[in-house]
Design a protein that fits this description.
Blueprint (H helix, E strand, L loop, with lengths): L2 E6 L3 H10 L7 E7 L2 H11 L3 E5 L7 H11 L4 E6 L4 H8 L5 E4 L4 H45 L7 H7 L7 E10 L2 H4 L5 H18 L7 E7 L2 E9 L8 H19 L3 E11 L3 H14 L6 E3 L2 H8 L2 H15 L3 H16 L5 H23 L5 H12 L4 H20 L3 H14 L8 H8 L3 H12 L3 H19 L4 H7 L5 H12 L3 H7 L9
Parallel strand pairs: 1-2, 1-3, 3-4, 4-5, 9-10
Antiparallel strand pairs: 6-8, 6-9, 7-8
Helix pairs in contact: 2-3, 8-9, 8-20, 10-11, 12-13, 12-14, 13-16, 15-16, 17-18, 18-19
Length: 538
C-alpha cells in the first residue's frame, strides 16, 4: 500500500534535506507537498489528503500547534510527526496529547528520523489494511443481509427486520422498486437428475457466478438471488414512481447479455423472463410467482420473454391449478398431510371435470408443468431421491394418462413425507444446515452464522453437527470447498486465484496451502495432472 507524505517547515534547507536524504520510494511513500507554514500546509492537506505529515512546531503565519488543531477538524486519520528543538520540548508533549504520533528533536538525526518514519508508515499500513478489512467485512455482511431480506420477501416469508435494516442503510421500503428478470436453466429438471450432488452444486455455482457478472457493463444496482436449483431472480433497483418501464431495446440487451454469458462460460442455455415495469417491494412475491409460471408453461428453447398482457393471460389461465400446487408445496414445507391430501383431492376433481378432446390434452400438458414445478420444489426441500424422480420422468416421457401420473405423484409425495416425518428434529436441523452451508461456501461462513440461521445455540449446533456428519463444522466446510475447487479446476478455465475466491479463500497463498494439505498437490499440479491420482473427483 503506497502512502502519501507531506513536509512542513519554515527553513528551506531543512525541507530540502528532508526531501532528498530520506529514501521515500524505498519506504513506500510518495512526497506530495512541501509547505513553509501552517496555513500553506492546511491548504495542501485539503488538496492532497496526505497519510503522513512531518511538521515543525515554530513557524510564521500559523504555527505547528495551531495547524495541528485545524488539521484534526478535517482529517483525523493522518499521522503527524512533530519536529522540535530542545527548548520546545513542553510544546511537543502538549502536541502529543492532541494526536501527534511522535516527535523528532532538532538538530535532526536522519537515521533516527528514517527509522521513525518507516515504523510509522508500516503501522499506518497495518491499521489501514485492518480498517479496510473491517469495512469490506461489514459491507459484505450488509450486502448478505439485504440479499437475505430480498429472498425472504420474494419467497413470501415474514421479514420483520426488513424496514429497520433498510432504513439503517439509507433505503426506504416504500421507495424501493425493481425491474425483475428470472433466469432458468433450460430442461433443468430432467437434465439435473443425471448429475451427482457435487455436479449439481458445481453447475449451479458456476451459472450463479456468471449471472452475477453478466450485467456489470450496464452499471446497474442489482441483486442476483438463487431462489431454487437452476433458477435465479435478478432484481434491478429502480426508483418507485421516478422511472418508467425499462426501454425495450435496453431490456433486450440485458436478456442477451445474460444468455450469452451463460452460453459462453458454462455451455448451458437459459431462458430469461423480464418484468420491465417497476415492481414495488411488497409485490415481489406475487410477481415472481407469475414470472415463474410464465417461463415454465411457455414453449420454445432458450426463451426471452417479457411480461405482456398476452403472456399474463397465458400464465394466468391455469392460476387455479397453480394455486392448488402452491397449497400442496406449502403443506410439504410444513409437513401437513391433511393439507396435502386436500390439495390432491381438489386437483383430481379439477381434471375429472375437464371435457374430452383438446381440453384433456391441455390438462395433461399443464399437469406435466405442475409436476416439474413440484419436483423442483421437493428437491429444494431435500424430500425426493434421484431414483424416485427418475421414475416420475419415465412416466411423463411415455405420455401416460392423467390418472396414472397423478397416482405416481401421490405415491411419491406420500413416500417422501413419510421419510421426512420419520426424521428426528435434529436431523431436520442438520439438513437445513447442509443446504445453508452449500449455498454459502463462497462467503466467510462460521458456526455463529449457521447456528443463528437455525435459531439454536453455537454449542448445541456443534454437538448436533459432529454427531450427524461425523466431523467438525470446519472440517466439513473445508472438505466441501476443496471438492468444489477440484471440480472447478478440472471443468473450468478460471484462474486459481478466482477459484480460490469462489470457494471462500480471498488469498491465493492460503487457498494453495489448504488445497495442498487436503489433496497432497497444489491447485496448479492438480489441474495439470487432470486429477488422475484422485480418480474421478467430486
Amino acid at each position: 500500500m503506497r502512502l502519501k507524505a507531506m513536509l512542513v517547515d519554515d527553513e528551506m534547507p531543512i525541507l530540502n534535506n528532508l526531501k532528498s536524504i530520506l529514501p521515500w520510494e524505498r519506504m513506500g511513500l510518495e512526497l506530495v507537498a512541501l509547505a513553509r507554514n501552517g496555513q500553506e500546509a492546511l491548504e495542501a492537506v485539503g488538496e492532497h489528503r496526505p497519510d503522513l505529515i512531518l511538521c515543525d512546531i515554530r513557524m510564521p503565519v500559523m504555527d505547528g500547534l495551531t495547524f495541528l488543531e485545524e488539521v484534526r477538524k478535517v482529517d483525523r486519520t493522518c499521522e503527524i510527526l512533530m519536529l522540535t528543538g530542545y527548548q520546545e520540548f513542553e510544546y511537543a508533549r502538549t502536541a502529543m496529547q492532541y494526536g501527534v504520533k511522535d516527535y523528532i528533536l532538532k538538530p535532526i538525526d536522519y537515521e533516527q528520523l528514517e527509522a521513525k518514519v518507516a515504523k510509522t508508515a508500516e503501522e499506518l499500513r497495518e491499521k489501514r489494511a485492518e480498517d479496510m478489512k473491517k469495512e469490506r467485512k461489514w459491507g459484505k455482511a450488509a450486502s448478505l443481509a439485504y440479499e437475505k431480506i430480498l429472498r425472504d420477501v420474494v419467497m413470501g416469508l415474514p421479514s420483520v427486520s426488513a424496514r429497520n435494516f433498510l432504513a439503517d442503510e439509507g433505503l426506504g421500503v416504500d421507495d424501493l422498486a425493481y425491474a425483475m428478470l428470472l433466469a432458468d436453466i433450460d430442461g433443468y429438471s430432467v437434465q439435473s437428475v443425471k448429475w451427482t450432488d457435487n455436479e449439481r452444486r458445481l453447475w449451479n455455482f458456476a451459472v450463479g457466478n456468471v449471472l452475477q457478472d453478466a450485467l456489470l457493463p450496464f452499471t446497474l444496482h442489482y441483486q442476483v438471488l438463487q431462489v431454487r436449483e437452476g433458477e435465479w431472480l435478478i432484481l434491478v433497483e429502480r426508483q418507485r414512481g421516478g422511472e418508467a418501464a425499462v426501454p425495450t431495446a435496453e431490456m433486450e440487451r440485458w436478456l442477451t447479455a445474460l444468455q450469452q454469458a451463460v452460453r459462453d462460460n458454462v455451455k448451458l442455455s437459459v431462458s430469461v423472463g423480464v418484468h420491465p415495469e417497476p415492481v414495488s417491494f411488497g409485490d415481489l412475491a406475487n410477481t415472481y410467482r407469475t414470472m415463474q409460471r410464465m417461463l415454465l408453461i411457455s414453449s420454445g428453447e432458450s426463451k426471452q420473454l417479457a411480461v405482456t398482457d398476452e403472456v399474463l393471460r397465458l400464465a394466468d389461465s391455469s392460476r387455479s391449478l397453480w394455486k392448488l400446487m402452491e397449497e400442496m408445496i406449502s403443506g410439504l414445507r410444513k409437513q401437513d398431510r391433511a393439507r396435502i391430501d386436500a390439495s390432491f383431492d381438489s386437483l383430481r376433481r379439477h381434471f375429472a371435470a375437464e371435457p374430452n378432446g383438446a381440453a384433456v390434452a391441455k390438462a395433461e400438458t399443464v399437469l406435466h408443468y405442475l409436476i416439474v414445478h413440484l419436483l423442483r420444489e421437493m428437491r429444494e426441500m431435500d424430500m425426493v431421491a434421484p431414483r424416485d424422480e427418475d421414475e416420475i420422468w419415465t412416466k411423463l416421457q411415455h405420455s401416460v394418462g392423467v390418472k396414472d401420473v397423478m397416482d405416481a405423484v401421490v405415491h411419491l409425495v406420500d413416500r417422501s413425507l413419510d421419510a421426512v416425518l420419520g426424521k428426528k428434529p435434529g436431523e431436520l436441523l442438520m439438513l437445513n444446515a447442509k443446504d445453508y452451508i452449500h449455498k454459502s461456501l463462497a462467503s466467510d461462513i462460521g458456526v455463529e452464522e449457521v447456528a443463528g440461521h437455525l435459531g439454536i445455540s453455537c454449542s448445541y449446533f456443534s454437538l448436533l453437527f459432529k454427531a450427524h456428519f461425523g466431523e467438525t463444522f470446519v472440517e466439513y466446510v473445508t472438505r466441501q470447498r476443496m471438492e468444489l475447487a477440484k471440480s472447478m479446476l478440472l471443468m473450468t478455465d478460471k484462474s486459481i486465484t478466482k477459484i480460490g475466491a469462489l470457494v471462500g479463500y480471498a488469498e491465493r497463498r492460503y487457498f494453495t496451502k489448504v488445497f495442498l494439505r487436503h489433496t497432497g498437490r497444489t491447485p496448479s499440479e492438480f489441474r495439470e495432472s487432470r486429477g488422475d491420482a484422485e480418480g474421478n473427483p467430486g
